[in-house]
């Protein structure tokens, strides 16, 4: 049984990750929060035995095999490196860090320590995206030409705060949502982005110069071009993902979500066919793969390298929006 420590008493851990760890045979033994009262209350509410206020106290616990990091983004680097050096496996929220140098340092520390490192990109675990990837690999739409992702949602009140007003913590929609688009596109297309163009918007929610919406296009190595629209401000939009090829199109709806829902249609010369989806909890799929990786069986569903790619793409989108120029995606891998 893998025993986990939580670095950050977060909403995502409470709503998704604690349950996923337990459902896949793991145990959460301690949580770290710099606010002692919050940490104690969080531990009690989530049936966690331990609560500490200092990362050294968490990492010195010999019972802990792995940590899940879900603090604000500017803290990830130092916490992940400290965990790796303490011999703990690391599953870190996206984006891995605020700079590529920091993300590379995290991956290097994990490699040096011989521990598993993963990025919590949940969307590649969705049955919809896996079915789309499989259909493309099987030649169901011919040669992919273009893709479209619409991932503009409304950021609920309990998730607002630093995402809207803290540039120093990596706030803004690009580092929060566009990283997911880029990772999901890489996974579904089995292709890497090479260039980005984009424009951002501040529609009334973003503060301190932070964008709350972005539109843009990514060009991939194969020549595929992919349009994306991300936002915090759209209360009534649906999400979707499309891939169009020489012989057909894949049309997915309501799939850019944490929940195991949504549909995928294959449209070709023979008409429309709904793909059968084996819907499962996305986070349980991720944790099962991570536990297997710890046991030496495979790799995390999203590796540290995948996290570097998504960060590099998001940073290129941000630079393209700022400069108005097409910007290369350069992960440095």
Automatic annotation (TrEMBL):
Record keywords: Oxidoreductase
Domain of life: Bacteria
A Pfam family this chain is assigned to: GFO_IDH_MocA_C3
InterPro entries recorded: Gfo/Idh/MocA-like_OxRdtase_N, Gfo/Idh/MocA_oxidrdct_glycsds, GFO_IDH_MocA-like_dom, NAD(P)-bd_dom_sf
Molecular function GO terms recorded: nucleotide binding; oxidoreductase activity
Gene3D superfamilies according to UniProt: Dihydrodipicolinate Reductase, domain 2, NAD(P)-binding Rossmann-like Domain
Domain GFO/IDH/MocA-like oxidoreductase: start-end pairs: 129-250
Sequence ranges assigned to domain Gfo/Idh/MocA-like oxidoreductase N-terminal in this UniProt record: 3-121
Protein name, as recorded: Fructose reductase
């Amino acid at each position: 049984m893998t025993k986990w420590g939580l670095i950050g008493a977060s909403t995502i851990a409470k709503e998704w990750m604690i349950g996923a760890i337990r459902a896949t045979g793991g145990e959460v033994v301690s949580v770290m929060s710099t606010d002692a009262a919050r940490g104690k209350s969080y531990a009690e509410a989530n049936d966690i035995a331990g609560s500490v206020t200092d990362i050294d106290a968490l990492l010195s616990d010999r019972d802990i095999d792995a940590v899940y990091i879900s603090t604000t983004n500017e803290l990830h680097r130092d916490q992940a490196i400290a965990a790796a050096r303490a011999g703990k496996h690391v599953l870190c929220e996206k984006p891995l860090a605020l700079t590529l140098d920091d993300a590379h340092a995290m991956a290097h520390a994990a490699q040096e320590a011989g521990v598993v490192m993963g990025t919590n990109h949940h969307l590649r675990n969705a049955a919809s995206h896996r079915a789309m990837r499989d259909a493309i690999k099987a030649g169901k739409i011919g040669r992919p030409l273009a893709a479209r992702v619409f991932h503009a949602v409304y950021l609920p009140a309990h998730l607002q705060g630093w995402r809207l007003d803290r540039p120093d913590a990596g706030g803004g929609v690009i580092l929060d949502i566009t990283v997911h688009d880029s990772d999901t596109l890489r996974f579904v297309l089995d292709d890497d982005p090479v260039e980005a163009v984009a424009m951002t918007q501040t529609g009334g929610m973003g503060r301190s110069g932070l964008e709350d919406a972005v539109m843009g296009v990514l060009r991939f190595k194969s020549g595929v071009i992919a349009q994306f629209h991300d936002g915090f401000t759209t209360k009534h939009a649906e999400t979707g993902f499309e891939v169009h090829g020489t012989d057909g199109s894949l049309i997915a709806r309501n799939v850019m979500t944490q929940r195991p829902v949504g549909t995928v249609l294959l449209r070709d010369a023979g008409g429309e066919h709904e793909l059968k989806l084996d819907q499962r909890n996305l986070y349980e799929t991720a944790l099962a793969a991570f536990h297997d990786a710890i046991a030496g069986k495979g790799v995390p569903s999203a590796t540290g390298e995948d996290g570097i790619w998504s960060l590099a793409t998001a940073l290129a989108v941000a630079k393209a929006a700022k400069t108005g120029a097409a910007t290369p995606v350069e992960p440095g891998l």
